[in-house]
Amino acid sequence: MPDQAASRKPGPAGTRFHEIRWLASVDSTNRLVLEEARAGAAEGLVVCAGEQTAGRGRQGRTWIAPAGSSLLCSVLLRPRLPPDRRHLVVIAASVAVAGAVESTTGVATSLKWPNDVMVGEAKLAGVLAEADGDAVVVGMGVNVDWPEVPAELIGVATAANREGGRPVGLPTLLDEVLRRYDAHLDDLPGALREYRRRLGTLGRRVRVDLSDGPLTGIAADVDHAGHLLVEVESGCLVEVAAGDVVHLRSA
Ligand code: BTN
Fold it and tell me: Does 57 sit in the ligand 1 pocket, CB within 6 Å?
């Protein structure tokens, strides 16, 4: 399997990210880090790849990224948090990615619930968390320098270079993501406040595609666990823990 580390380096000084492994190619950095977690790897391992042959997206989708043009990385955490607060480590990742993209490339972003980093209605980055026992693997895919948008993603995805962003090397962007992520993990209430501030979904009319059918209403708030509170026509708030959100035009 082509997952031999091309290089191993320490992460940013003073952070919990003690080792960064860069691979040329792997099936999925999330899959690999989950395997390392099961084998007992310590919190703070980071694995990045130039290319994924079976990148994983949310809701069982495939994550597509042209080779060498995106930040594709997964970090291993072992959060000591009650179950209803564990999701905050995922929220903190999307806040870190959004902030790092803005500060390194100059591209202004917003967040779409639950963890998409957007430019307008096009997706620039996504976050996928997968858990096993006490381990949480947080995978981040950031579209940085795409020569073109793959045909199947036209109108859906974008990349920093296509939004007029300043060129940024992947190690520089990763360094900024990890520094910010480390700080947010130390202050999860602050990360949730920052998430709410950045969340473009709030106040929008939305449709949430749930396993038992669509739910339509106004995205009123997110609760302490990051769940979306949707105000439906009756005025009731419906709590949504997982699902896909579509931003609708106001009625
Ligand atoms: C989403 O669907 O929005 C989440 C996408 C997460 C993609 C990243 S790329 C690095 C890591 N490894 C994977 O297989 N997926 C995540």
Answer: yes
Contacts of 55 (CB under 8 A, 6+ apart): 28, 62, 63, 64, 65, 72, 141
**Amino acid, res. 33:** V
Residues 43 and 197 sit within 8 Å (Cβ to Cβ): no
Residue 123 alpha carbon, nearest atom of ligand 1: 3
1 pLDDT higher than 60: no
pLDDT of residue 4: 61
**Residue 3, φ and ψ in degrees, nearest 5:** -120, 25
Q: Which atom of ligand 1 is nearest to the CA of 52?
A: 14
* Spacing, Cα 186 to ligand 1 middle (Å): 23
Tell me the CA distances in angstroms from 121 to 118, 151, 227, one per residue in order.
Answer: 6, 17, 21
Q: Is the dihedral of CA 89, 93, 94, 100 positive or negative?
A: positive
The gap from C-alpha 144 to its chain's centroid, in whole angstroms, comes to 14
